[in-house]
């Protein structure tokens, strides 16, 4: 950062006559980053209240922030800076979540998005045809999101994820993860930050997990701290995704200049801010050369170039805002953070051989180098073996540059690639899909048969349904006996007379449909159960509809349309209507069975195979269902029209109750068919609703009449019915 700022301040082309200043905060700990953020936000003028009330003119201490490094802390900082629209450019925070401009409106970065990094890993896995891998990540936003993305994209590619886990610095957790890796795979993807990865690899070495292939993320791919772990070379072959190396002319010379270091015991002696007065302000200052300090990370030009590019991005945006030309800038213009933010979104410039701009998510067009850890020359060296560019989504790699640190667990096979011969690696664990009737447990190398699930006779659900069905059949038979013994009474005649027995027969058929849902579905049962029920239930609904219509017609329409009523009675209009109504349903069901009948089907849900029947011709099924709904609505309407009839004829509330239960049945029936992942219970739900619909007719229509016959015989006489009719006629005349 200092190198970039000094370069810009000494430049005659970029920001001529304008000097950039900076405020630096160490980012060793999260709390330091937070404190630094609030120090940067402290305004040059005004209080916090004034800042919020006069937002657009608020001038913080800085107009742009470079950093911090980790994704987790960057999210916290970016939320606050985004509220004040202070542009922030991170050089290391690669988490995909930071591309969300709604949550982080002022965030940019010069490191690629982790989504691109995962794509590079997947292309690498595809290149070497590794099809049985483990995926491990650190217990933070960076690692968890990385694992999720790798698993998602690798699975889509057809690669088997034998194991996935999350690690922390806990030795117990790491040991368990290592045990799983040892027993399942030879290739592991590690998506981790440096702190947790260092602890992980130290335990990998201690546990003697050797000769594996490791694909590691950019956060650790160039970590010298990890490569210096004792006996680290025993872990096997390490291939990493690294930020592309950029060019920074004269950077090495800059590093070799003498640097001052403050070693004052206390801060009471003042800050060492100027080289010329350092010894006067600080009680203890000394001059150090680059070789006296540990520059293992500073010298890493890949990360340094990201910082360098971030500073230059701010400078180019300022250059445009200050309307700079080749000689001077408009220094009188005051630059506010939100203005700089707007200009950064459109900035485009060349940085030596690197063309930098930010897309709509604040991400750069940067790619990756593919590096290998090489111990052949003594010590660890980072060898570039290929590259990946997000713009083309293609990987370019030279496998001959890789020195494989493996044993006989991996087989080397010669293959021809790009007109050259290279070593190609195949894992002995070949990933093969289990058969459709099988499943495989996690970390397993074998396939197990799935359990078959259907409504067995001894299943508690089936027993419950059979109890309900037998109860319904028994109730129907009892009703039939009561009506037969009292068939000449006014109650039975007003209920429909002989037509009641047709309804009771259709109810017996409806209850009997339940047996077609139990046991392994077969072709005959699948074709019978739904059409048989809809035809039976249509007969029942048609009888209720014609009976309701007749009662309304007698009391309200017979006098107005005497001729029509006479023909209706003379030619048995009620039976003709029942026949035609049922015939329409029979035609629909016949077309259904001829074109595409329901047939046995199966659904795979987790570890089981659910056996059931499909619907077949969906159009015919829908017409059959809708026709039943239409009859139910018609019954409800005619019952409602007769709500003011004599009380012994007024059955509006009973029929309405029955029809409301039917409506609930229809809704639940359709819900059971369209609700995802419920195929385990579809047969039970549909069978239960079939029984319920038949019960609704029995309880709502017949049971009240049986109650009058058995317990209120005084209301089942001709005299009582005539008195009710006379009362109704008298009230009608009075109202007229």
Please provide a brief summary of the model.
The protein is built from 23 helices and 22 strands. With 736 residues, it is of the alpha/beta class.
Cα(first) to Cα(last) distance is 99 Å
Integer tally of domains = 3
Which percent range fits the helix content? 40-55%
* Gross morphology: elongated
Stated plainly, the CATH topology of the largest domain is called: Rhopdopsin 7-helix transmembrane proteins
CATH architecture of the largest domain: Up-down Bundle
CATH homologous superfamily descriptor of the largest domain: Rhodopsin 7-helix transmembrane proteins
Structural class based on helices, strands and sheet pairing: alpha/beta
Main beta-sheet annotation? 8 strands, mixed
Number of helices: 23
> Strand content of the residues, in percent?
15-25%
Q: Biggest sheet, strands in spatial order?
A: 5-4-6-7-8-13-14-15
Question: pLDDT average, as an integer?
Answer: 80
The CATH class of the largest domain turns out to be Mainly Alpha
Let me know the number of strands.
22
Output the radius of gyration. Answer: 41 Å
Low-pLDDT ranges: 45-55, 260-285, 292-299, 408-429
């Amino acid at each position: 950062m200092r190198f970039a700022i000094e370069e810009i301040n000494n430049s005659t082309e970029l920001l001529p006559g304008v000097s950039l200043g900076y405020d630096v905060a160490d980012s060793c700990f999260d709390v330091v980053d937070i404190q630094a953020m609030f120090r940067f936000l402290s305004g040059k003028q005004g209080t916090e209240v004034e800042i919020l009330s006069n937002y657009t003119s608020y001038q913080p201490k800085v107009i742009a922030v470079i950093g911090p490094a980790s994704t987790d802390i960057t999210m916290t900082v970016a939320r606050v800076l985004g509220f004040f629209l202070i542009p922030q450019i991170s050089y290391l925070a690669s988490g995909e979540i930071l591309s969300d401009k709604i949550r982080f409106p002022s965030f940019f970065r010069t490191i690629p998005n982790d989504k691109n990094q995962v794509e590079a890993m997947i292309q690498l896995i595809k290149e070497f045809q590794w099809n049985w891998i483990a995926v491990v990540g650190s217990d933070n936003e960076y690692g968890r999101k990385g694992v999720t993305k790798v698993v998602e994209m690798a699975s889509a590619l057809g690669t088997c994820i034998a194991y996935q886990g999350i690690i922390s610095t806990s030795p117990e957790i790491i040991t368990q993860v290592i045990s799983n890796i040892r027993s399942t795979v030879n290739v592991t993807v590690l998506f981790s930050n440096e702190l947790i990865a260092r602890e992980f690899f130290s335990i990998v070495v201690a546990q003697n997990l050797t000769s594996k292939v490791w694909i590691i993320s950019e956060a650790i791919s160039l970590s010298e701290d990890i490569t210096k772990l004792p006996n680290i070379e025993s872990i096997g072959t390490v291939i990493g995704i690294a930020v592309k190396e950029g060019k920074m002319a004269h950077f090495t010379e800059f590093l070799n200049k003498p640097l001052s270091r403050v070693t004052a015991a206390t801060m009471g002696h003042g800050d060492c801010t100027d080289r010329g007065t350092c010894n006067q302000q600080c009680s203890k200052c000394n001059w150090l050369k680059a070789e006296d300090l540990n520059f293992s990370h500073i010298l890493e030009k890949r990360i340094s170039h990201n910082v360098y590019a971030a500073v230059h991005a701010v400078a180019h945006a300022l250059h445009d805002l200050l309307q700079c030309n080749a000689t001077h800038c408009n220094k009188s213009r005051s630059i506010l953070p939100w203005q700089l933010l707007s200009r950064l979104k459109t900035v485009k410039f060349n940085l030596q051989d690197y063309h930098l701009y930010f897309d709509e998510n604040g991400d750069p067009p940067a790619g990756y180098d593919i590096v290998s850890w090489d111990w052949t020359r003594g010590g660890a060296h980072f060898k570039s073996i290929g590259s990946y560019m997000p713009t083309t989504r293609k990987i370019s790699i030279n496998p001959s540059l890789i020195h494989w640190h493996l044993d006989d667990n991996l087989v080397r096979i010669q293959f021809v690639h790009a007109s050259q011969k290279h070593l190609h690696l195949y894992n002995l664990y070949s990933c093969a899909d289990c058969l459709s009737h099988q499943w495989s447990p996690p970390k397993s190398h074998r396939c197990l048969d799935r359990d078959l699930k259907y409504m067995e006779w001894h299943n508690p659900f089936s027993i419950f349904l059979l109890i309900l069905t037998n109860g319904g059949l028994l109730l129907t038979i009892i009703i039939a006996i009561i009506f037969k013994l009292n068939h000449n009474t006014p109650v039975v005649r007003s209920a429909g007379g002989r037509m009641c027995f047709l309804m009771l027969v259709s109810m017996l058929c409806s209850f009997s449909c339940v047996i077609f849902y139990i046991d392994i579905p077969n072709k005959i049962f699948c074709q019978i159960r739904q059409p048989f029920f809809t035809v039976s239930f249509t007969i029942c609904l048609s009888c209720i509809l014609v009976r309701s219509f007749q009662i309304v017609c007698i009391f309200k329409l017979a006098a107005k349309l005497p001729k029509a009523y006479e023909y209706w009675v003379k030619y048995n209009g009620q039976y003709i209507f029942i026949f035609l109504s049922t015939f329409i349903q029979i035609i629909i069901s016949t077309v259904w069975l001829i074109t595409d009948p329901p047939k046995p089907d199966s659904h795979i849900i987790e570890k089981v195979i659910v056996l059931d029947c499909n619907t077949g011709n969906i159009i015919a099924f829908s017409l059959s269902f809708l026709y039943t709904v239409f009859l139910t609505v018609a019954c409800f309407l005619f019952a409602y029209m007769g709500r003011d009839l004599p009380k012994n004829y007024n059955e509006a509330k009973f029929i309405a109750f029955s029809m409301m239960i039917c409506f609930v049945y229809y809704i639940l029936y359709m819900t059971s068919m369209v609700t995802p992942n419920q195929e385990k219970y579809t047969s039970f739900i549909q069978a239960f609703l079939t029984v319920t619909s038949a019960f609704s007719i029995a309880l709502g229509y017949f049971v009240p009449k049986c109650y009058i016959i058995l317990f209120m015989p005084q209301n089942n006489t001709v005299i009582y019915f005539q008195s009710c009719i006379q009362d109704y006629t008298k009230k009608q005349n009075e109202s007229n």
